[in-house]
Amino acid sequence: MSEKSCEALDKLRQAIDEVDGQLIDLLAKRLSLVADVGEVKSEAGVPIYAPEREAAMLNKRRQEADEAGVGGDLIEDVLRRLMRESYHREKDTGFKCINANIGHVVIVGGEGKLGGVFKRMLELSGYQVKTLDKDDWHQASELFDGAGLVIVSVPINLTTQIIDKLSQLPRDCVLVDLTSTKAKPLSHMLNVHQGPVLGLHPMFGPDVASLAKQVVIYCDGRYPKQYAWLLEQIGIWGAKLTVANAQEHDNAMTLVQGMRHFTTFVYGQHLAAENPNMAQLLDYSSPIYRLELAMVGRLFAQDSQLYADIIFSSNENTKMFSRYLTRFEEANTMLLNGDREGFIDAFKNVSQWFGEYSTQFLDESKQLLMQAHDSRAV
Length: 378
Ligand code: NAD
Prior knowledge:
Elements: H1 3-44, H2 51-67, H3 72-90, E1 104-108, H4 113-124, E2 129-132, H5 140-144, E3 147-152, H6 156-163, E4 174-177, H7 183-192, E5 197-202, E6 215-222, H8 224-236, E7 240-243, H9 246-274, H10 278-283, H11 287-297, H12 304-311, H13 315-336, H14 340-354, H15 356-374
Parallel strand pairs: 1-2, 1-3, 3-4, 4-5, 6-7
Antiparallel strand pairs: 5-6
Helix pairs in contact: 1-3, 2-3, 9-13
Bound molecules: nicotinamide-adenine-dinucleotide.
C-alpha cells in the first residue's frame, strides 16, 4: 500500500474509533435510562417484558433506520441485543411484591436447580423463602406452619410420593409444583390438599439469565382466585404464561420434550460410538451444523437423571418412540432399495404438511444462523 493510502486509512480508522467511542457513551446512557425505567416498573409492578411496546418501538426504529439508509434489519438486531441486556439488568432492581400478606414460602427441593431459580426470584420480589430439602423432613411441620405458598421442585420420579406427604399444609396455603409432567402431580396435589392448587411447568432451565420472554405453562387445579397473585407475580418477572389442560400438556410434551431429548440422546450415542475427531468436525462445520452439534452436545452437559426422568416419565413417550423407529426403518428401506422417487414423494408430503410454517421456519432459522455466524463460537 502506498504511503498516501496508509495515511488515508489511518485517518478513517481514527474517525471510526471516535464514532465507536460515541456509540459506547450512547449505549451507557441508554442502559442507564433503562435502569431508571426498571426502577419505576419495579415500584409500579409492571412486567419487565412488554411485547406490544417492544413491537411498536422496533417498528418505529426500523422505519427511521430505513429512512436514514442504515437498514431496518441492522437496527433491529442491535436493539434486540440491547433489550436482552436490559432485561438481564432489570431483574437486579428487584420486583414488586404482589402479595405481601401471603406469609412465608416453602420450596420443597429448594436447594435444587429450578427450586433455586424460584427462590431467587421470590426473594427478589420481597417474599420470605424457606427451603425443605431431603434431610429436612424432621422440621416439616415447623416449616409449613404459617406458609402461604408451598412449591414442590424435586426430581420427577419422587414427585408424587413427596406430594403425598403434604397433607398437613395450612388450609389456605397455595400448593404448586414445577414438574415437567403435569397430570399425575396435579391429581396427587388435589388429593392431598383441600386448599388452592396450581400446576406449573417452567419451559426453561436453571441457566436462564432472566425470565423475560420465557414460557411458563400453568394448569389450573382448584380455587384460581387464590393463586391469581402468583401468576401475576410470574408475569412481572417477564415470563409469558400459557394455560393448558394437564393431559393435553403431557401429550404435547411427548413431542416437545420426550421425543426431542430422546432423538438427541440417540444422536449423541451414535456420535460417541462412531468416535469422530471433534476438533476436525468443528473445523469442517458450517454454522448450521455447528449449531446442530451444539444442541446435541449441550444435552450431555446437563443432569442425566432429569433427562432420564423426562424420557421415562410416560407410556406415551415409549409408544411415540416406537412409531418414530418404524418411520426411521421405512426411510431406511427406501434408501436400501435405492427408491429415490419414493424419498422425493415423501419429502413433498412432509413439505405439504408443514405448509406455510416451512417458509416461516426458514426465515426464523435464517435469523438464528446469522446470529450464530456472528457469535464467538463460529
Ligand atoms: P434438582 O435435582 O436440581 O433438584 C431437586 C432437589 O430436590 C434437590 O435439591 C434434592 O436434594 C431435592 N430432593 C430430593 N429428594 C428430596 C426429598 N425426599 N425431599 C425434599 N427434597 C428432595 O432438580 P431440578 O432440575 O431442579 O428439577 C426439579 C423439578 O423441576 C423437576 O420436577 C423437574 O421436572 C422440574 N423442571 C426442571 C427443569 C430444569 O431444566 N432443571 C425445567 C423445568 C422443570
